[in-house]
């Protein structure tokens, strides 16, 4: 049966929406502005006569963006199983707190005396981040995970420079399953990257790691739990070994959600670790601007933490802005200001509303949900490593052998079923990887429906219904794209060709 079409292009409540440039008109505006009088051009004649921006009335603008928002999947719509991303529910309590006057309407250049409450909140957040990780220092300024990762490794580099060993310690050890930002960060700071192979159980090969140790090793960059969703059982032995040769231990904190309240990274020998507030402490991904990736530091690196810092002064809380004010050796500053206030408020609200026991349960439930998925799909899909897993369940594509269906096709078919696909082809060490992270907030009913859906998809693939996969998505607002062409010939800007007829004003 052919797909039903409509005169408008709409499909029930799924409304067609053109580009804003196609529906707008230069003679239309939602705001009336008086003509400018007595304006003198001070730009040397380089002003443009017309910018050609689209003009919409207020109702048109609202409808345009509401319709666009309905074409995107969101955590508020359903399960969002992106592994290694931790797409958590964002509690509305957090949002309410972030909108309180005094948090939402302050400016980073205000006098310190007028923002004591905000500084107190940052100090409180820093306290609990240090408590939960068992680390003595934290830098709040990094804007994201990769930025926090850079912060930790810059502290490592500063410490090595202070020891006069920067010319000798040039190698950073990175497991082959690591996130791509790990080797990129090391290379950016001038280190060479030495890859550590994995053992058959998906963890760091301890013998291979020991063989690579030497007095030229600056650090190891390791994720725990790792990107295969497994806890590195030898982590203390790894930390001790790298410290014995004079190196440092950077731990990628992307997966802290699996162990928060259960394990303190500082107790495992970690020297630096970034924390993704959006992954562990429920702040929005992006959130309309920069995120936040605070970095905790051990006693070995605490003195090199970047500026600015919140400290207790004689007349209240103060910001240390300059190296001359610091009693130690900060490596400098990474940003103009001290972080992302909105994310700080949300993260602390999450911590305080959960408490220590609640955060521990978050980790427990996240691990339980992932293991439930792995157990229920173990006879249907193929896992490259034996369980149990931590917070995410990893599958390879061997269950699709000889079906004519690939990982990408399987993911596209999930879109037709109303699910955002899981993380595909990552980690790279697993062929056709499918990485699923349900997080702690999904109910058993939600997981059961998800599991049943994947079982149905697998049954269709093995029954030879390849069209269900290779033509998917068929029901989404945007159909299947030629991804190779999109990558090689991207259209990055709108160029008017033939002027389309503007739809009747709404």
Describe, in plain words, how this protein is organized in 3D:
The protein has 506 residues and is α/β, with parallel strands linked by helices. The protein contains 14 helices and twelve strands. A seven-stranded mixed beta sheet has the order 1-7-6-5-4-2-3, sandwiched between helices. Strands 10-12-11 form a three-stranded antiparallel beta sheet. A two-stranded antiparallel sheet has the order 8-9. Strand 2 (171-175), helix 6 (181-188) and strand 3 form a beta-alpha-beta unit. Mean pLDDT is 92; it is low at 499-506.
Strand-helix topology:
Blueprint lengths: L19 H4 L34 H12 L22 H7 L17 H18 L3 E3 L5 H18 L8 E5 L5 H8 L3 E5 L9 H7 L4 E7 L11 H10 L3 E5 L19 E3 L2 H4 L14 E3 L11 E5 L2 E5 L20 H37 L15 E3 L11 H10 L6 E2 L9 E3 L7 H19 L4 H4 L12 H6 L18
Parallel strand pairs: 2-3, 2-4, 4-5, 5-6
Antiparallel strand pairs: 1-7, 6-7, 8-9, 10-12, 11-12
CATH topology value of the largest domain: Aspartate Aminotransferase, domain 2
* Average pLDDT over all residues: 92
Summed up, the domain count is: 3
CATH level-two architecture of the largest domain = 3-Layer(aba) Sandwich
CATH superfamily descriptor of the largest domain: Type I PLP-dependent aspartate aminotransferase-like (Major domain)
* DSSP strand content: 5-15%
What is the count of DSSP helices, taking H or I runs of 4+ residues?
14
CATH class of the largest domain: Alpha Beta
Q: Radius of gyration, rounded?
A: 26 Å
Specify the overall morphology.
Answer: globular
Percent helix range: 25-40%
Q: Cα distance, first to last residue?
A: 34 Å
What about the largest sheet?
7 strands, mixed
Class of secondary structure makeup: alpha/beta
Order of helices and strands: HHHHEHEHEHEHEEHEEEHEHEEHHH
